[in-house]
Amino acid sequence: MTATLIDGKAVAAGLRREIAARVAGLSFRPGLRVVRVGDDPASGVYVRNKDKAAQEVGFDSATIHLPAGTEQAELLALVARLNADPAVDGILVQLPLPPQIRADVVISAVAPEKDVDGFHPLNAGRLASGQPGLVPCTPKGVMHLLRAAGASLPGARALVVGRSGIVGRPMAQLLLGADCTVTIAHSRTRDLAAECRRAEILVAAVGRPEMVQGDWVAEGATVIDVGINRLPDGRLVGDVAFAGAVERAEAITPVPGGVGPMTIACLLENTLEAALIRRNI
Ligand code: NDP
Question: Is pLDDT above 90 for 1?
Fold first, then answer.
């Protein structure tokens, strides 16, 4: 079997067009503020891409760039101003933050109804208890990809490798919400290969290049590779050894061009959702 490629660029472009069309029909522009602290070059690229994508769908979007030496209290004061600003629907504080600022404190300070990253403990708790709320963008994007691939989820054995708060845990909750039978693997899992071989849906979110070997993938599985790893030779690879996995899976995401493009599209979707909910639309 050679797997069908799940084209994240195409699915993301479709979602962005749909959001732009919905925004064009509104009598207001959803407002997004992206906060960047310091000069981390990778963060600079992410923030510019988010701002540009938000402008393209018609949002009122702006980046607020604070110096690397900003104190936590100053950042919290800015977040409080954005929380109170009626023109702002979504607030995103780009991580990582400089060492003098605690990310968990800042994340908890964002108003939950404007938390378009879905990282606030209230939104995490809502997701864990099956209530509606803002959901982290990357796992939300994975659910779009699974639907686009036509994966049959109810009752499916799903394995999530990784248990971080931004990918693995919310991913597992979303799959559970879609009636999968979910297993979560992590660095202390005893026999990861055996867990992978049982999975009909395999989501890898580890951050280790090609760790999930091709022959760990079950024949006919749907494989979603969240990992983005840069090798010393400059190539980008995922957490799954693609060349072997593509021979066994039924459908698989490439890296790049799979999950990556979905994260920004889902940030836009969350901002639109936040704007509509705040206005009772
Ligand atoms: P974290 O480092 O926060 O979490 C990694 C997880 O993998 C941990 O739960 C860890 O387990 C687990 N893990 C580490 N080593 C092993 C192992 N040998 N076997 C099994 N599990 C292991 O990473 P993130 O969740 O933030 O990101 C994961 C990957 O996804 C990265 O490559 C990142 O770049 C990518 N990513 C991609 C995004 C996109 O837009 N496509 C967005 C966000 C992330 P333990 O908890 O036990 O330590």
Answer: no
